[in-house]
Amino acid sequence: MRPEGAIEIRSDMTKPALTILLAGPRGFCAGVDRAILIVEKALEAHGAPIYVRHEIVHNRFVVENLEAKGAVFVEELDQVPDGVPVVFSAHGVPRSVPAEAEARNLNYIDATCPLVSKVHFEAERHHRRRRQTILIGHANHPEVVGTMGQVPEGSMVLVETVEQAENISPADPSNLAFVTQTTLSVDDTMDIVDVLRRRFPDIVGPRKEDICYATTNRQNAVKAIAARCDMLVVIGAANSSNSTRLVEVGIKSGCQEALLVNRATEIPWENLKDGMTLGVTAGASAPKILVEEVIARAQNAFEISVKEIKVADENVTFNPPRALGA
After folding, report:
1. Residue 12: its pLDDT value, please?
2. Do residues 86 and 101 lie in contact, with contact meaning Cβ atoms separated by under 8 Å?
């Protein structure tokens, strides 16, 4: 008989079992693919260095790979020397940014995601029709800064929560519109939209909310696996809105331990025991190679069984600007 408290040593050295549920879709979306391709093609066309205003997408692995190829990332145009090309990030920029670039005769390339550009067009259209526009989004996120910068100051107001939606007091409640940041939680956004529609029945909105297909698909995939997981890891950066939302969705959907990690080394592997299930996904700005890294790390310590739970197929592509070639 083994003494109480003694550690059992397996004579066959069998690894503990771990089931990995892969959420599908996961990883890069079409807008991110396009933005990265724009930087790479700009480097091919013009040579290094190419300056990029803001991180092209919110992922350090991607940024560091592009830096190694000759991209230089800056926060504002005053950090860009005269005579070198500059790329605007996938998140979009206020109108003042291309205006400044043109005033300096800078050669700029706009890598704004086409789905973000769609929101910009909606905001401009509402302004032309003299509607005050409510933007549902998160303060200080680059996409929100860019969208609010499409119209004159004061013509758009930001709403982040249901509570703010309940208390907003527009000048003309009968002449309102709303648009949304593309990377929000689908469920939380609909709660805010429901409040706005109840309070302002005449409010004008998009035919379907502006949350992008990739954000919606990745959140639905997390919902499909969360309750089955002992731990869910979301590969993505802390400043990535879509990745952060995936963690929130995982917790709300029944997974008690949902974590945002940059790389496999940040996962608390010691918390995973024999017979547990690990859910894995990646935000729209995280490359799938980082998912492969997680699986390889798990395989070192566990006998793994990998299952993909796919809720949608994605075949969307966005071409780069014609000036850079297809």
Report:
1. 46
2. yes
